[in-house]
Specification:
heterodimer; A: alpha+beta; Alpha-Beta Plaits; 2 domains; 5-stranded antiparallel β-sheet; 4-stranded antiparallel β-sheet; 4 helices; B: alpha/beta; Rossmann fold; 3 domains; 6-stranded parallel β-sheet; about 15% strand
C-alpha cells in the first residue's frame, strides 16, 4: 500500500447486498484474490427479496486497506449496498456443527456437560458419535471446540460469521 | 416484430449509433455474421487478421473519438485472443463493447469444441461482463453494456452470446433507457470540497497541476485549459493525459514520471500543493511512493472513488465528472473577491522563477550527428512536418517514450498509446481504428522493430481497407527499453534483447501491397517523411535505421524518488 502506513490491522465484518445472479459471488472473491486482500470467512444466502443475496465477509486490514476494500466492492456493478459493521454496535454470530467420538468411557457425560455450559444442542446421536450444534460469537464457538478437543473430534463444520447492526441501523434498500 | 437473436444484435448496434465493428468470424458467430452480411449498408465491419488486432483497433477508434469501440469475435480461441486487448482497455479506461460467440446453451460446461468460459476468464479485466442466457434478455443486455462502457469511469464490457440464442426468434423492442440500481456514478462534485480546494489553491506558493487520461476521456481539455490559464499555474501531464493541455504552451512543463522532464519531476518534488485531475498516481508517475512529493498537500479530482487515496493520502478528495468539477472550480475561483489571474500569478512568481531555472537544464536536448539517425530527431521532424496535427499511435518501449517526449500534442484525442498495460503490438491496429474513424486525417504509427512484429499481420487489413497510415519504425535492432534496463541495472548483460533475424521491412511492406522505405542517413529523414506525407492514399512503412544503443532520458530508476533522475 505504498506510503499508506500499515499499522494496526483490524478485523472488519462487512455485510453486502448483492444481485442474486450467477457469477456475482466470484466477482467478490476474485476481487479479494486479485488485489491481495485477505478473507477470513465468507457466507452468502438469498434474502427475503429474491433478487438479492446477502453476503457477510470478514477481513482484516488497517483503515486505508479497509477503505480501499469498500471502494472496490462498491465498484462491482452487482454490489447494491454494503455496510462495514465495525462502524456500528453490532451482533456477530457463527454456527458450528461438530461430531465427536464418544466411545471412550465417560465421553458422553463430558460432551453433555460441555453442551450445557456452552448452550449447545446435541442434534444427532449414534452408538459411537454425538453431533453438537452451537451458535454464538466466533470466540465462544472456538472455545467450545477447544474444550471438546480432549475427545476425538471427527468433523467440524463452521458457517463463518454473520452480523447485524444493533438498534435501528440496518442494511436494506 | 419477431426477429432472430442475430437480427436483434444488428438492430441494437444500429440503435446505439454503431457505424463500425471490428471482428473476425468463426463457428459460434455464424448467425451474427449472416445478419451483418444483410446489413452491410448500415454497419461497416472491418475484418482484422487476429482478434487482438480487432480489440486494439476498436481501442484506437474509441480513443480518437470518445465513442465506444465495438468488437465481435467467435468463441474459444477467438475470445481468448481478444483478452490482451480487453485487459489493455481496462487499464486505460477505454469504452469498449466486446461481443463473443459462445457454444449453444445446452453444450456450455461440456468442454465443447471452441468452448471457453470467457466470462470467467475476463472477470478481473472488464468493467462488467454478461452471459446472455435468455433471448428476451439480449436487447436489454446490449443496452446495459453500452451504458456501462461509456458512463462513469469508462471501460470494456463483454457480452457472451450462445450460438442458439442468435438463431431463435423473439419479439424485439429496444429499451430507450436503462437503469441499474446498483450503479450510479457520481457526476457532481461536493460543493464544500470544491470550496476547500480553491482555499488551498489560493494559499499555495508552489502549486502543480498534475492531470491525466481522465481529462481526455472526460472531454474536459477546454475546461482544464481555461482553469490553468486563469490561475497561471504550471501544469504537467501524465503519459495518458498528453493533449489535455497544449504542450506548446508556456505553462506546460512537460510530461512527468519515469521519463518525464527534469522540470516537471523536480517541480512535483518541491511542490506544496498537487492538484491531481483525472490521474491515478501510477507507480510510473510516483517512483518511490515514500519519497513522492514530500512537501505537498493533495487535491484529487476523479470519477472513480477507488482511485482516490489508493496510493497517496489525499487532503481534498473530489469525486465527480472531471468536466463538471473543473467548471465548478472555475466558477468558485471567479466568485472570490479580489482574485484575478494577476493575483494568482503574483502569488507564485518566485515559483515560476525557480521552474524556469530548472528548465534551463534543457533535459530533452540531444545531438544529431551526420552519421546515425537519432530516434528523437525522427519524432521531432514528424512533429514539424505534420504541424503537430497528426493522430499519433505508438507501440510500447523506447519509441513510445520518445514519441511522448518529442511530439508536442496541443489537442486531446491525438495521442493514442497503451499506457497502463504496456501492450507491444498495440500501435498498428490502433492506428487502423483511428484512420477508420478519421479517414482524412494524418495518422502516424510510431513503433519499433520489436513491437511492430507483434501485430504485423494487420498490414493486410490496412491493404484491404486502404488505410494510408504512416508507419515510422524506429529500428535499433534491439528491444530497446529492455536493453536500456539491462545496460543500467544488469551490467550490460543483454539477455534476449537483441532482435536477430529482422525481416527486410521494405520487402515485407511491399508484399502486403504497401510502400516501403529504408532510411539510414540523418540527412534523408526529412525528405523521407515529406515523401511519405505526399503519398496521401498509401500506407508508407518507413524503416528508420537508428542508433542502436540510444537511451531514453531523463530516467527515474524504478524505486527511486522523483528527484533522483538520470539525466544523460
Amino acid at each position: 500500500m505504498g506510503n499508506l502506513s500499515s499499522e494496526t490491522a483490524k478485523r472488519h465484518v462487512i455485510s453486502i447486498l448483492i444481485e442474486n445472479e450467477s457469477g456475482a459471488l466470484s466477482r467478490v472473491s476474485g476481487l479479494f484474490s486479485a488485489r491481495g486482500y485477505n478473507i477470513e470467512s465468507l457466507t452468502v444466502a438469498p434474502t427475503e427479496d429474491g433478487s438479492l443475496s446477502r453476503l457477510t465477509l470478514v477481513t482484516r486490514g488497517n483503515d486505508e486497506i479497509i477503505e480501499q476494500i469498500i471502494k472496490q466492492l462498491h465498484k462491482l456493478i452487482e454490489v447494491v449496498k454494503l455496510m462495514d459493521l465495525a462502524e456500528y454496535a453490532h451482533i456477530e454470530r457463527e454456527m458450528m456443527l461438530v461430531k465427536v467420538d464418544v466411545q471412550k468411557k465417560g465421553a458422553c457425560e463430558s460432551v453433555k456437560r460441555l453442551a450445557d455450559i456452552f448452550r449447545a444442542r446435541i442434534i444427532d446421536v449414534s452408538d459411537k458419535t454425538y453431533t453438537l450444534e452451537a451458535t454464538g460469537h466466533r470466540e465462544k464457538v472456538s472455545a467450545l471446540l477447544n474444550a471438546l478437543s480432549e475427545l476425538p473430534v471427527i468433523e467440524v463444520v463452521r458457517s463463518g460469521s454473520m452480523g447485524i447492526a444493533r438498534g435501528s441501523s440496518s442494511l436494506r434498500l | 416484430m419477431e426477429l432472430t437473436g442475430a437480427e436483434i444484435f444488428v438492430e441494437c448496434l444500429e440503435a446505439e449509433g454503431v457505424d463500425t465493428l471490428f471482428g473476425y468470424p468463426g463457428g459460434a458467430v455464424l448467425f451474427l455474421y449472416d445478419a451483418l452480411y444483410q446489413a452491410t449498408d448500415r454497419i461497416n465491419h472491418i475484418l482484422v487478421r487476429h482478434e487482438q488486432g480487432a480489440v486494439h483497433a476498436a481501442e484506437g477508434y474509441a480513443k480518437a473519438t470518445n465513442k465506444p469501440g465495438v468488437v465481435l469475435v467467435t468463441s474459444g480461441p477467438g475470445a481468448t485472443n481478444a483478452v490482451t486487448g480487453i485487459a489493455d482497455a481496462y487499464m486505460d479506461s477505454v469504452p469498449l463493447v466486446v461481443f463473443t460467440g459462445q457454444v449453444p446453451r445446452a453444450m456450455i460446461g461440456n468442454d465443447a469444441f471452441q468452448e471457453v468460459d470467457i466470462v470467467g476468464i475476463t472477470r478481473p479485466c472488464v468493467k462488467h461482463n454478461f452471459l446472455v442466457t435468455d433471448i428476451d434478455d439480449l436487447a436489454v443486455t446490449i443496452k446495459k453494456a453500452f451504458y456501462l462502457a461509456r458512463s462513469g469511469r469508462p471501460g470494456p464490457v463483454l457480452v457472451d452470446i450462445p450460438k442458439d440464442i442468435t438463431q431463435i426468434r423473439t419479439e424485439f423492442s429496444y429499451p430507450e433507457t436503462v437503469s441499474i440500481r446498483s450503479y450510479n456514478p457520481t457526476v457532481k462534485g461536493n460543493k464544500r470540497q470544491i470550496r476547500r480546494a480553491i482555499d488551498l489553491i489560493l494559499a499555495a506558493e508552489k502549486p502543480m497541476l498534475y492531470t491525466g487520461g481522465g481529462v481526455v476521456l472526460g472531454d474536459a481539455a477546454e475546461e482544464l485549459t481555461q482553469l490553468t490559464r486563469d490561475l497561471g499555474f504550471p501544469i504537467t501531464n501524465t503519459l495518458m493525459g498528453l493533449g489535455g493541455y497544449p504542450a506548446t504552451d508556456e505553462q506546460f512543463v512537460g510530461m512527468l514520471g519515469m521519463h518525464g522532464t527534469y522540470e516537471a519531476n523536480t517541480a512535483m518534488h518541491e511542490s506544496d500543493l498537487v492538484i491531481a485531475i483525472g490521474a491515478r498516481f501510477d507507480d510510473r508517475v510516483t517512483g518511490n511512493i515514500d519519497k513522492f512529493c514530500p512537501h505537498a498537500k493533495f487535491i484529487h479530482v476523479d470519477i472513480d472513488p477507488s482511485s482516490i487515496s489508493k496510493n497517496v493520502h489525499v487532503d481534498v478528495p473530489i469525486v465527480g465528472d472531471v468536466k463538471w468539477v473543473l467548471k465548478a472550480l472555475l466558477e468558485e475561483l471567479r466568485s472570490r473577491d479580489g482574485v484575478t489571474g494577476a493575483t494568482t500569478r503574483a502569488q507564485i512568481a518566485p515559483w515560476w522563477q525557480q521552474i524556469n531555472e530548472w528548465r534551463k537544464m534543457d533535459c530533452l536536448k540531444y545531438d544529431q550527428d551526420d552519421d546515425t539517425i537519432r530516434a528523437q530527431y525522427v519524432v521531432d521532424k514528424f512533429w514539424e512536418i505534420t504541424g503537430g496535427d497528426a493522430y499519433v499511435c505508438s507501440d510500447v518501449g523506447q519509441h513510445q517514450m520518445w514519441a511522448a517526449q518529442y511530439y508536442k500534442f496541443d489537442k486531446p484525442l491525438r495521442w493514442i498509446n497503451s499506457g497502463g498495460l504496456g501492450t507491444m503490438g498495440f500501435g498498428l491496429p490502433a492506428a487502423m481504428g483511428v484512420q477508420i474513424a478519421h479517414p482524412e486525417a494524418t495518422v502516424g504509427c510510431i513503433t519499433g522493430d520489436g513491437s511492430i512484429q507483434m501485430c504485423i499481420q494487420e498490414l493486410a487489413t490496412c491493404t484491404q481497407y486502404q488505410l494510408p497510415i504512416k508507419v515510422i519504425n524506429l529500428n535499433n535492432g534491439y528491444l530497446g527499453m529492455v536493453r536500456q534496463w539491462q545496460e543500467f541495472f544488469y551490467q550490460k548483460r543483454y539477455a534476449m534483447s537483441y532482435m536477430d533475424a529482422l525481416p527486410d521491412f521494405v520487402k515485407l511492406a511491399e508484399s502486403y501491397g504497401h510502400i516501403g522505405m529504408r532510411i539510414e542517413k540523418p540527412g534523408d529523414v526529412e525528405g523521407a517523411l515529406k515523401e511519405a506525407m505526399a503519398l496521401q492514399n498509401r500506407l508508407v512503412f518507413m524503416d528508420f535505421i537508428t542508433k542502436q544503443e540510444g537511451n531514453v532520458y531523463p530516467m527515474i530508476p524504478a524505486g527511486a524518488g522523483q528527484n533522483e533522475m538520470i539525466l544523460v
